[in-house]
């Protein structure tokens, strides 16, 4: 199955890059998934301005960037979103990436790794869970909230994860994400089979 890890900060000097590098290094050992990092720096979406909502649109999309993004999201069986917290919520670039397509997100699980100050980015995740429901995604319970300014050293100078409790949290997260990805993939395949039989008849 395919897991897409979405890095949602595009700021210069972003802390999310350390988090993403740690996650991708760890995911090598999780052979249930073929994992790929999608960096929103590579997908510079404008604010959504179509006359129709994304739920009314289907492939092929215009412009080309939206089509490329849709193809990446469509092939995924699960998502892991890495997000900071800006003013009690998540980045605008992430909202644009979520809003620009619709059907490709449906009926797939998502989990979140947040980072930030006093709340460890958890308030951004609370908002994202509501968006995920509207996109017909399954937001799983397990997540990781990293406090970068708590006084505890999280990463070494070379970027290695020092707070090993996060590795244990990632293990639990991945176990749950795999269960949901497998269950929902099976359900999607059954739905497609039924739809194809109806068309054939």
Structure description:
With 201 residues, this protein is an alpha/beta fold. The protein has a single domain (2-200), classed as Flavodoxin domain (Rossmann fold). It has five helices and six strands; from the N terminus they run E-H-E-H-E-H-E-H-E-E-H. It has helices spanning 16-27, 64-74, 92-99, 122-134, 165-200; strands at 2-7, 34-39, 78-84, 109-116, 138-139, 144-147. Strands 1, 2, 3, 4, 5 and 6 form a six-stranded parallel β-sheet that branches. The longest helix is centred in the last third of the chain and has 36 residues, at 165-200. The radius of gyration is 17 Å and the shape is globular.
Outline the fold blueprint.
Layout: E1 2-7, H1 16-27, E2 34-39, H2 64-74, E3 78-84, H3 92-99, E4 109-116, H4 122-134, E5 138-139, E6 144-147, H5 165-200
Parallel strand pairs: 1-2, 1-3, 3-4, 4-5, 4-6
Key terms for this structure?
201 residues, alpha/beta, Rossmann fold, six-stranded parallel β-sheet
Summarize the structure.
With about 200 residues, the protein is α/β, with parallel strands linked by helices. About 40% of the residues lie in helices and about 15% in strands. Strands 1, 2, 3, 4, 5 and 6 form a 6-stranded parallel sheet that branches.
């Amino acid at each position: 199955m395919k897991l897409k890890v979405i890095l949602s900060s595009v700021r210069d000097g972003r802390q999310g890059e350390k988090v993403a590098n740690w996650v991708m290094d760890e995911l090598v050992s999780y052979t249930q998934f073929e994992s790929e990092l999608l960096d929103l720096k590579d997908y510079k979406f404008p604010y959504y301005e179509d006359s129709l909502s994304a739920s009314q649109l289907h492939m092929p999309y215009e412009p080309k960037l939206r089509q490329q993004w849709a193809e990446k999201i469509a092939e995924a069986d699960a998502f892991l979103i890495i997000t900071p917290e800006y003013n009690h919520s998540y980045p605008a670039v992430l909202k644009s990436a979520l809003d620009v397509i619709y059907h490709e997100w449906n009926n797939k699980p998502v989990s979140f790794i947040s980072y930030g100050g006093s709340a460890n980015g958890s308030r951004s995740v609370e908002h994202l869970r509501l968006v995920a429901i509207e996109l017909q995604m399954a937001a799983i319970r397990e997540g990781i909230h990293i406090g970068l300014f708590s006084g505890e050293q999280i990463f070494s100078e070379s970027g290695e994860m020092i707070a090993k409790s996060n590795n244990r949290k990632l293990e639990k997260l991945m176990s749950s994400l795999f269960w949901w990805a497998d269950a929902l993939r099976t359900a999607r395949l059954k739905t497609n089979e039924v739809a194809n039989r109806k068309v054939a008849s």
